[in-house]
Amino acid sequence: IAANDNTVVTIYPNGQIPSNQMTFLTLMANQAYILESYVDTLTANIGTAQPDFGGSRISATKPIAVISGNTRTSVTNFEGGISQNTFKNMMVEWLAPADQHGTEFVYTPTWDIYRITGQTNENTDGKRASEFIRVYGSSKDTTRGIYQQTLGAQKTNFFTLNSYFNEFRVTGTAQAVYIKTDKPAQAVMNSTA
User: b/e for 22-47, b at 16 or more Cβ within 10 A?
Assistant: First the structure.
């Protein structure tokens, strides 16, 4: 979304896009452009890597706003066929500019009746199987970091290249996670339905 006339926007998408979509364009004040990606949802492709818009880079000659959205998604497949529709929710977020990214993040689990508490003999049927945390590298060079769950002292080292991301799946008992990076990055979480 452009704030000013003659804003030249360049998009470097990580995902696959239809051939009729532009990645270099000029917007006037209050104009918006939508770039769409797609994945192959055939059952035969479940579990295979799909191109992802995550980490795509966008630059502009004047200030712009970027909104990211996923209209039909379920992070983890629980059911087959049409029954998955109840797990598909619209997810949209207004992205922060790279100069506002940070180096320390705390993920806190979704605290509702669907979380796994770790109580003795807990019935986990119908409970949230997992949540996901992504750390996007937004610096020119490689970003290095640590990932540490609060219920354990073990730290996991990771690195992320510019315009890419690391994804961590948080399973089991709901607990907070601490993430620290050596360069500015962006961390986001998404939950299963």
Answer: eeeeebeeeeeeebebeeeeeeeeee
Condensed to tens digits (0 to 9), the pLDDT of residues 58-99 reads 999 999 999 987 765 555 555 555 556 655 666 777 888 888
**0.90 exceeded by the pTM?**
no
